[in-house]
Specification:
- By secondary structure, this protein is mainly α.
- It has one domain.
- It has nine helices and no strands.
- Helix 1 crosses helix 5, helix 2 packs parallel to helix 6 and helix 8 packs antiparallel against helix 9.
- The longest helix has 36 residues.
- The radius of gyration is 19 Å and the shape is globular.
- The two termini are 28 Å apart.
Length: 214
C-alpha cells in the first residue's frame, strides 16, 4: 500500500516519503482512536447543552485537542519507522525484520500493560464523567486544554499497544482493526481493566516464546 502511494521502499527516504508516513500514521491513529473518544466527546457536548452554551465551537475544539495528541504521536511513530527503514531493520511487510527485536517490543508493551501508569491512564479513560467533573474548564481555551489533557491520558493508556504494529506490520489492516476493537473493549467494556492485564501477560508470553525460538 505504501509503495502504491509512491513511497520508496528499498532506498533512503526523501522528504516526500517522510511526509507520506506521517500522513499515513495520522489517518490511522485518528481512525483507531476516535471511536474510543466518542463517549467523552458526547458527554462533553451534553454538558454544554445542559449549560445552555450555544454553538459547536467548544466541542470541535475539544475533539481537535484530543486528536492533536495522537497526531503528535503519529509524527513520532513515522520518525521511528524512518529510522528503522534507514537501518534496514524493516521487512517488505513493514514489520521489524529481527524476530528478537519484535519479541522485545512485545515484552516491553506487555510490561507496560501491567504498569501503574497504564492503570492510572486507563482509569481516567474509563470514567469520562469523572474526567469532565474534575477537569472542567470553560471557553475555547478551556475546551482545548481539556481535549489535550484527555488525549494525553489516552496516549498514556494506548501508546504501547500501537508499537505492536511494528511487530505485525504497520499496514496490516486486520491487526489495525483488532487493536481498534481491543482499545474499545479496554475503555468501555465491563471488564476492561482485567482485559488489559490479561493482554499484557499474553504479550509477555508471546514475546518470550518468540525470543527463545528465534
Amino acid at each position: 500500500m505504501m509503495a502504491d502511494m509512491g513511497m520508496v521502499m528499498d532506498m533512503s527516504w526523501a522528504a516526500r516519503d517522510v511526509l507520506f508516513a506521517v500522513a499515513m500514521w495520522s489517518v490511522m491513529m485518528v481512525g483507531m482512536m476516535t471511536p474510543a473518544a466518542a463517549p467523552v466527546i458526547m458527554l462533553y457536548a451534553g454538558a454544554h447543552r445542559g449549560r445552555g452554551v450555544p454553538g459547536m465551537a467548544p466541542i470541535i475544539t475539544f475533539g481537535a485537542g484530543y486528536l492533536m495528541i495522537w497526531i503528535a504521536f503519529s509524527v513520532a511513530a513515522a520518525m521511528a519507522q524512518w529510522a528503522l527503514h534507514e537501518a534496514a531493520l524493516l521487512s517488505p511487510l513493514m514489520s521489524v525484520a529481527s524476530a528478537r527485536t519484535g519479541a522485545a517490543i512485545l515484552i516491553a508493551a506487555g510490561v507496560y500493560q501491567l504498569s501503574p501508569i497504564k492503570g492510572a491512564c486507563l482509569k481516567h479513560c474509563r470514567t469520562p464523567l469523572g474526567f469532565l467533573l474534575s477537569h472542567w474548564r470553560s471557553g475555547i481555551a478551556g475546551a482545548l486544554g481539556m481535549g489535550l489533557r484527555h488525549g494525553a491520558y489516552c496516549l498514556g493508556c494506548c501508546w504501547a499497544l500501537m508499537t505492536v504494529l511494528f511487530v505485525v506490520g504497520v499496514m496490516n489492516l486486520l491487526w489495525v482493526a483488532a487493536l481498534t476493537i481491543f482499545v474499545l473493549v479496554e475503555k468501555i467494556g465491563p471488564a476492561g481493566a482485567i482485559v488489559a492485564r490479561v493482554a499484557g501477560v499474553a504479550m509477555i508470553a508471546a514475546g518470550a516464546a518468540t525470543w527463545f525460538n528465534a
